[in-house]
Amino acid sequence: MRLVVVGADGRMGRMLIRAVAEAEGCTLAGAIERPGSAAIGQDAGTLAGLPPLGVPVTDDPLPVFAAAEGVLDFTAPAATTHFAELAAQARIVHVVGTTGLSEDDLAKLAAAAHHARIVRSGNMSLGVNLVAGLVRKVAAALGEEFDIEIVEMHHRMKVDAPSGTALLLGEAAAEGRGVSLPDVRVSTRDGHTGARRPGDIGFATLRGGTVVGDHSVTFAGPGERITVSHHAEDRAIFARGAVKAALWAFPKRPGLYGMTDVLGL
Ligand SMILES: NC(=O)C1=CN([C@@H]2O[C@H](COP(=O)(O)OP(=O)(O)OC[C@H]3O[C@@H](n4cnc5c(N)ncnc54)[C@H](OP(=O)(O)O)[C@@H]3O)[C@@H](O)[C@H]2O)C=CC1
Ligand SMILES: O=C(O)C1=N[C@H](C(=O)O)C[C@H](O)C1
Fold first, then answer.
1. How many CB atoms lie within 10 A of CB 162?
2. What is the pLDDT of residues 117-137, one digit of tens each?
3. CA of 82 to the centre of ligand 2 (A)
4. Domain 2-124+235-263, architecture per CATH
5. What's the whole-model pTM score?
6. CATH 3.40.50.720: which residues of the chain?
7. pLDDT classification of 1: cutoffs 50, 70, 90
8. Dist. CA 242 → ligand 1 center (Å)
9. pLDDT one-digit tens code per residue, 207-243
10. Which residue's CA is the nearest one to ligand 1's atom 2?
11. Contact (CB, 8 A) for 145 and 219
12. Which of 47, 119, 140, 187 could disulfide-link 176, Cβ–Cβ 3.0 to 4.6 Å?
């Protein structure tokens, strides 16, 4: 499968180039960066710390998408909605790892999915998607006397909060409880907040250093607490998941898929 990496000079972009080069069944067909980026013209392999791959980074996605079969996209919301239109025009697979997407952005992805096979997840790792399954089960088994609180920590450069993973885990907890997350989500607490409302799902965000991604979901009940956690140690887990998603989606029909589909969970 011929794959393009967009945002090639990003933390995830460089990881994705390595994952494509190392995986069986795919080759790097292109690498895209923003116009004006210092990476334009460089070899994608060299950029990712590998021997040269003979693929120069360019800022023109159109001809690159036209010659490819899939795109791996861990960039930013405005870029991702633009790439979704182009991927739909080219009828190629679009793997979306970008987080911080608004409802409006998600509607644009849903529209593009009429023509493209899109796999989107706030976290492409096997571990987090397994944890989400556990959270759904625990939330379904416990009543509202167990308060659900989600804590995440990421590196100091992360720009969106709560993280895509925290929201994915919150969705899983809400699903288990049979409620809608927007109805019970509490993402900020400051000052005189009053007592906790029964049934709320709380989010707390920590930022600092080089943390790849830590998440925990706590169920705090009368006299006992259950905590389910995941600690990402290496961004390679997300990149390998993205390549797996692209290969999985290649023979599928257009539509919007998630990592639970890819992993068969
Ligand atoms: N779902 C998952 O499993 C994971 C998701 N993520 C998400 O992936 C996204 C990227 O994370 P990360 O790699 O750390 O961030 P970075 O900022 O390091 O990388 C993003 C890259 O995309 C580039 N970019 C932005 N806009 C465009 C554009 N229009 N055309 C081409 N390139 C563009 C940026 O360029 P510039 O710097 O010039 O803006 C940058 O090089 C985030 O939303 C993050 O939350 C991260 C890890 C795992
Ligand atoms: O920005 C990151 O770094 C990460 N983003 C994703 C998220 O928002 O959950 C996934 C991972 O935790 C790393």
1. 24
2. 999 999 999 999 999 999 999
3. 21
4. 3-Layer(aba) Sandwich (3.40)
5. 0.98
6. 2-124+235-263
7. very high
8. 14
9. 999 999 999 999 999 999 999 999 999 999 999 999 9
10. 123
11. no
12. 140
- CATH T-level topology, domain 126-232: Dihydrodipicolinate Reductase; domain 2 (3.30.360)
From CA 27, how far away is CA 127, in angstroms rounded?
Answer: 26
pLDDT digits (tens, 9 = 90+) for 20-32: 999 999 999 999 9
Q: What is the pLDDT of residue 209?
A: 98
Please give the number of the atom of ligand 2 that sits closest to the Cα of 155.
3
Measured from CB, residues less than 6 Å from any atom of ligand 1 are: 6-7, 9-13, 32-34, 37, 74-76, 79, 97-100, 121-124, 164, 238
For the annotated binding site, the residues are 7-12, 33-34, 97-99, 121-124, 155, 164-165
Pocket test residue of 17, 18, 32, 34 for ligand 1, highest count of atoms within 8 A of CB: 34
Domain span(s) for CATH 3.30.360.10 in the chain: 126-232
Please answer whether residues 156 and 238 qualify as being in contact, where contact means their C-beta atoms are separated by less than 8 angstroms.
no
